[in-house]
Amino acid sequence: MLVNGLDIIFQPPDVHARTSPRRFVFLVDIYKCIGCGFCVKACKLENEIPFDAGVSRTWVERYVVNGEGEVFADTPKEARYGFTTGRIDLGRGKFKDIPQEKTKKAFFVPKLCNQCEKPSCVQVCPVGATYQNADGVVLIDRKWCIGCGYCIMACPYGMRFFHPVHRVADKCNFCYHRINQGLRPACVQACPTGARLIGNIKDPGDPVEKIIRTQQVAVHKPEYGTNPQVYYVGLGEEVR
Amino acid sequence: MHILRPLFVVLAIAAIILIARSIWIPSDFGIHERGYTYGWYRQSNIEEWKNFTVKYQGREFCVTCHAEQVQKLTSSKHKNIECENCHGPALSHPADPLKLVLDRNRELCLRCHTNLFYPNSQRSQIKGINPDQHNPGLECVLCHNPHEASKPR
Amino acid sequence: MVLESLWTVKEFFVYPNEYIYWAIQIVMYPFMTGLVAGAFVLSSLYHLFGIKPLKEIARFALVFSFALLMVAPLPLLLHLAQPQRSLYVGLTPHFTSAIAAFGVVLFVYGSVVAAELWFLFRKHLVEVSIELKSKTNKSLAEKIKYMVHTILTLGAMDVSDASLKLDAKAIKVLAGVGVPIACFLHGYAGFIFGSVKANALWMTPLMPVIFIMSAIVSGVALCMLIYIIIMGMKKFIVSRKNDSAALSTLKEINSEEISTVQTSVKYLIFFMIFSISLELLDLVFRGYTAVKSWDILRNVIYGTDFINIFLLQYLMGNLVPFILLLLPGLKIRRLIPALLLVLFGVFMMRWNVVIGGQSFSLTFSGYMDYQLPIIPHGLETFKEGLGGALLIAVLPFILFWILNKIFPVLQTKGPD
């Protein structure tokens, strides 16, 4: 009975019936991202994250590679004001200027919660305050979170943080309140170039599903085994 | 057998804890779709998230009253920029807020129009300026209309 | 404003949401539970294995372990962003998380220690209860003392030899059962860190074992230290009497103290060797296999954290006390600084794991510097600052002093 009980508890999740016709996935096109940062602004305002706080449910990173293959990366104030200067923020008040001739490779990478199929953040919550629903979205129960921070430590992608006002864990949830009623997430709607797209991997008519199934896409840090569901077109090996 | 007395005390405390649990645990807390590892939660939380207020309404909301502005915008190079990107979320405008933001700051335009010649990004295709050299300190809207997105008026 | 930004300084490429979320209280927590486990193991060395020279320190170690246990949840309460919800871990535990084990382990271990203390001091509780019962004009303090002692006897007033023999048996059983539970109490704390695959420094199966070994080291060292101090106080009180009886008492105390201490030191050294071997093994392994994270870890271990790891922990906290303990002619005078350094070394180990693991970014191309708040500017910087840490450090001693009034270890001798 003990073995049976343990088996039920620790069975791989795919064994459990997936009744929902939806599994939300995200697609990011790195070439299309222009680093305007409107996604970050929209996300913060839509999801009530204090605009001036140094945390965000989503952000944009900039990578600049010079002729020697040295990679410089930054995300000034999570890109809430976009990228309005070519100077790279190195922290502690230091900056790096790379002239145009030396810029061999450069691009922007939007990042957001991967809503992993095997979320390590959910696994380590001691009280069941964070969970994955049938649509694949990982949500946080603000009334149950005790604020231990274990989930924040467990995310390999650095997606989670403590909400500065509510003082519970917080993270991107694909704007679940919007996608549930057929709206697009705030960041997808705000993106002027279509670099961010949301889709349903279970719907064969979904344009995002088609791209993921037929084109060369990649996920970020697959080695952690979390099975992330944000797919990237044009993800290079420099991306941290 | 007096040696069992501490055990009785412990069992009594355990019983109290179990009774307290049956009172305090929310009735909808349990193992849901994704199993114990990923689906251990309070069911009513999902409804709470579904009811979270939508702030950004989208261009279809703006066009019902501001058709002229939208028409100008969609015939310009800025046609892919959502109104609320620059004017902020509509919420239940015009009830609340009465007016939306008119952000005249340079920084708003520099988000896209600071020249960054990044070979692997569409950013390098956007016409832009060097903010330190092109009218530094002045508002862009003094000369450029964002809804028409053309050369200076 | 982000609270954690008050004590985090980022450098180079760090994800926006990365801050030092697990600060000084998360360093204190494994340090305290380590002392709990270590003190209990020391006590069991006598109660289970009958190592005679440890008899006096054993009783004392058990009471101190209980005092420490009662303080152990406090660093967590000070750390939690929603401490009023801390009981949820008992209401809806998610056992896939190592932290969920906390509630169960604490309760089980606390029961074992409380029960063992009860059996150890039952005779004393009964004697005080009977003595105070017959007293007619009890002062308020005496009334409280009578009530507490009588309730704690749980009605088991029989202190015949046969009954006390049963007590001794129960103690042995509990000491035996308690050792693996004590190991689990601190092993799970190690598992909390070791199982986080997202953290390149923490992720290793060795973590629970390293934690347990260094826990025993710290527990034994602390108990020895307090024991020496208490013996010193006893000797001071006796020596003021200045008569021949005092001299012989002094001699007695001295010889008992030296024999206890010499045996304890042997176990301390054994566990120190075990503990340091595992840590060095982990370090050598990482350098040898040099996986993706090694570059940033090397910069942290041999660069930014070099002083914390090699000078403070390994040199001052391990090698120096090791030499001090092994040099021939060990006297109390040399023992005290050695024990203090050992405790410091174990504390630095906790610091270097918790803070060290957050000193580098998930990008593997950035760093975070932890600046412990010294002067509190409000409740939050007190809780997660020097003030909060000192509070946790001092409380066990206060609690021990209170517990000593019910379970005296400073004056009378125990039933066995």
Question: Any overview of this molecule?
Answer:
- The complex is a heterotrimer of chains A (240), B (153) and C (416).
- Chain A has 7 helices and 12 strands.
- With 240 residues, chain A is of the alpha+beta class.
- Chain A is globular.
- By secondary structure, chain B is mainly alpha-helical.
- Chain B has a domain at 59-148.
- Helix content of chain B is 37%, strand content 4%.
- Chain B contains 7 helices and 2 strands; from the N terminus they run H-E-H-E-H-H-H-H-H.
- Chain B has helices at residues 5-24, 35-38, 44-50, 59-63, 67-74, 83-87, 106-113; strands spanning 29-31, 40-42.
- With 416 residues, chain C is an all-alpha fold.
- Helix content of chain C is 70%, strand content 2%.
- Chain C has 14 helices and 2 strands; from the N terminus they run E-H-H-H-H-H-H-H-H-H-H-H-H-E-H-H.
- Chain C has helices spanning 24-47, 55-71, 73-79, 88-91, 101-133, 140-153, 161-194, 207-239, 244-289, 294-304, 306-326, 332-354, 379-383, 386-403, and strands spanning 8-12, 366-370.
- A two-stranded antiparallel ribbon of chain C has the order 1-2.
- Mean pLDDT of chain C is 91; it is low at 412-416.
- The chains are: A alpha+beta (240), B mainly alpha (153), C mainly alpha (416).
- Chains in contact: A-B, A-C, B-C.
